[in-house]
Amino acid sequence: MANKILPQKYQFQNRDEISLIIFTLGRIRGERKKDRYYIESLLKMTGFARFIIVMAILAPLAYVGASYYNGEDGIQNLKNLLGIESSNTTTISSDQAIVSEDVAELQATVEELQDRVESLERENKELKATLYEKEQELKTLKGE
Question: Cα separation of 107 and 43, whole Å?
């Protein structure tokens, strides 16, 4: 009757085959049990190790939360604190572009001011020359 219920690959001819299979399965289960205990023993931790792992996860989260509560960017604060600045390169390049524009504007302003100084110096020389001429005329008029 059992032969009719089981599929063809699970039908056995005698009890020796069945006992061999049961023995083999029991042995495999025993080895798995030993492996499971070995793995569990590797995963056992002391209370201090658990505390360190929890603090390694909890402390940064608490810092980020407190930073957001204070109105700051907590993740950027952590990056600055740890020295992780992947976005700094883009910030520096954009800052350099702004600085180069400012430098160009300042150079143009300097050139304009130099031109104005030169024109004022020329005008000053002309006025000095005119003043000298007028003083000479005044002396000649007084001397007469």
Answer: 68
Report d(CA 31, CA 38) in Å as an integer. Answer: 10
- Terminus-to-terminus CA distance in the chain, angstroms? 159
State CA 115 to chain mean position distance.
Answer: 47
Q: Say if residues 107 and 97 touch (Cβ distance below 8 Å).
A: no
Structure tokens at 53: 């792992």
> pLDDT tens-digit profile of 67-114?
888 988 888 888 888 888 765 555 556 677 778 888 888 999 999 999
- What is the SS3 assignment for 71? coil
Q: Three-class SS of residue 30?
A: helix
Residue whose structure tokens are 């960017």: 73
Do 75 and 64 meet the contact criterion of CB atoms below 8 Å apart?
yes
Q: Cα separation of 1 and 5, whole Å?
A: 7
Residue type, 29: R
